[in-house]
Amino acid sequence: MADSEQNFAELEEKINYLIETIHQLERRLIFVEKSLQQGNNLIDTDAVSVTGSLERPNIIKINYSEPELVELYNNDCSALFNKVLKVSLTEDSLLKKSSNSIFLAERKKGNYWIVATEDDNYWLLPKANLRIDTYNYQTVKSLFECDGYEVNSDSEFTLIKPATVSLAAGGEQWMLVEPGRLNFASTSPSDGDFEEGIEETPIPKLLHTLTGHTNSIRSIAISPQGNVLASGGFDNTIKIWDLQSGTIINTISGYSRFNSVAISPDGETLVSGSDHETIKIWKITNGKLKNFLTGHSGWIDCVAVSPNGELIASGSRDETIKIWNLETGELLQTFTGHHGAVISLVFSPNGYVLASSGFDNTIKLWNLDTRELIRTISGYSDLFWSVAISPDGETLACGSIKHTIRLWNLNTGELQHTLTGHLKEVWSVAISPDGKTLLSGSGDKTVKLWKLSTGELLSSLDCHSKEVYCVAISPDGQTIVSGSKDQLINIYQLM
């Protein structure tokens, strides 16, 4: 019985293919006849134009980024109905008679959609409400990675990444360039799976909204003891807060914007970087200035303190990274290599590696023992605003101006995942102490929580009215904090 149903499905696909081919021929004949009657130039009217790349004049181009398209498809795919081209696999690709390449052609009842963007990208999506079952799974699998699919079950899915296609020579078929990715959620988990899901999926509850800054909050840091929060703002102040109660402890005033703050492992010292080209070291308990470090010739965009509390790293618009002795203020090393401002820094948990990102669209890894460059991650057109390293030292997370978060293997430099879901640039990323959860803040005004191992989106918080510039997670992993251009700090407890 199953074989008969499968044969029927294949026969139906072939019949649809033949019917659509006949319709295409009919449309061409009608067009040629009308054009000849009107004396029109056939080539100018319906030919595929070549302007550096092949185009399809009959596809409405949309002005969406890839994350925006994914968000729209998963939440309201009906908005795409009149902007797509319906396609199915060609007969040769369906029966695997052609080369290793996979081709699709326009079909009136096609199971897939092609969407074109104004920057000449072509994305392939499953049609709305496509049910994936035993009979069409192999076809779907040739176009999309299917995470969590269970054989012999009709499964709903979430689009994680659209497939990429290009127009083949002749303009009648589309060739698969890069497979997409679908995620299948289990609809009937076992009791054990349900308990595990509850344990691994944090549910944020708003505890406090802190007010006091009078301009954008650009950086936040939580003390390793988990009792103190520091926030640096464009209002020329640093504010020290009690993390549990949300009450303000102290305000440190400066003469320029504070771009970055970091707290030492003992919780006693605060380090700040500002537009004043100096690094300042403060005593947290009373807000008194302990020391200031000079040597940079540009704004200080980022500072970090090593896990052992001995070193400060600073990144500047003078395109250098400087390493200082925290206790004495002595300059130990200057790293050069970025060709643009250095905008984010993070020490590895063992303190042997420093990761940096810059305006030159590169990420660099530095060996603090040998004081040499280990690796440069480049080749991407992304500007990475923020970098974070997992507690096991294996994963490097980077927030991108192109709305994505990229996860690399820190040891090999291999790209592991690209997380999509934000609709604007990702300003800040942080990783939980247990290494399970990634936190991100974006220009789309949201804070998102992700499962680090898979890139799965766990939760999204519409918590601010303007861009979220900075996020942090407490040492016990139970509290998350976000700071925004709206001058507010939100503190959430993870339930």
TrEMBL record:
Source organism of the structure: Cyanomargarita calcarea GSE-NOS-MK-12-04C
Q: What is this protein called?
A: WD40 repeat domain-containing protein
List the signal peptide residues. none
Task: Keyword check for tRNA-binding, yes or no.
Answer: no
What keywords are assigned to this protein?
Coiled coil, Repeat, WD repeat
Q: Where are the WD repeats?
A: 210-251, 260-292, 293-334, 335-376, 377-418, 419-460, 461-495
What stretch or stretches form a coiled coil here? Answer: 1-28
Please report a single Pfam family linked to this protein.
WD40
